[in-house]
Amino acid sequence: MSEHYAGILRLIRRGRYFHIGSRKLRKSYSYIENLVDQLITLGTAPAEQVHRKTFYLADSEPIELRAWHDQFASIFGRRIPTVPLFLARLAAAGGDLASRLGVRVPITSGRLANLLTEYVHDVSPIEAIHGRTTISNEEGVRRTAQWLMNVDARN
C-alpha cells in the first residue's frame, strides 16, 4: 500500500479525516490480492488475448468513496464528520495562498479537485479473460484495516 493511502487510513483511525460535501463519488480501486490475481492472469494468458491490448486493473465493483471510508472508520471505532463543500473550497483557496508562500498545507484547490474527481474504469476487458474479482470491497476493507493495525502495532 502506498504511504499516501496508508496515511489517509491513519487519519481515519485517529479521527482526523473528514468527508467533503455530500456528493457520492465512485472510484475504481483494487484490493491487492485481486490485483495480483489479475496480473497473473495477464502473465499466463495466451498472447492473442493480451497482445497490443489495454487493460485497466481494478476490482469488479468500484467503491463509493464515502461508504468505503465509513467502513474503515467503523472498524476503527470512529465516525467521519462532513465539511460542507463551500468551507472546503475556502480552505483550499487559503491553502493555495499559503502554498505560494512556501508553507506546506494539507489542502489546495488542486488537491480538492482530485478528491472530488470520480473515476471508474472499464474493467470488462480484464474480466473477459480473468472473470470478476473474488475478494469483495467489504472483505478488502476488513483485511486492509487489520493489516494496518498490525503494522502500526509493530512500530
Provide structural commentary.
This protein has helices spanning 3-13, 32-44, 47-50, 65-75, 85-100, 109-115, 124-130, 137-154; strands at 19-20, 26-27, 63-64, 82-83. With 155 residues, it is mainly alpha-helical. The protein has one domain (3-154): 3-Layer(aba) Sandwich (Rossmann fold), CATH 3.40.50.720. The strands form 2 sheets. It has a two-stranded parallel sheet. Strands 2-3 form a two-stranded antiparallel sheet. α5 (85-100) packs across α6 (109-115). It is globular, with a radius of gyration of 18 Å.
Number of domains: 1
In the CATH scheme, the class would be: Alpha Beta
Largest sheet, in brief, is: 2 strands, parallel
Low-confidence stretches: none
Named CATH architecture: 3-Layer(aba) Sandwich
In terms of topology, how is this protein built?
Blueprint: H1 3-13, E1 19-20, E2 26-27, H2 32-44, H3 47-50, E3 63-64, H4 65-75, E4 82-83, H5 85-100, H6 109-115, H7 124-130, H8 137-154
Helix pairs in contact: 4-8, 5-6
Task: Looking at this protein, list some descriptive labels.
two-stranded parallel sheet; mainly alpha; 155 residues; globular
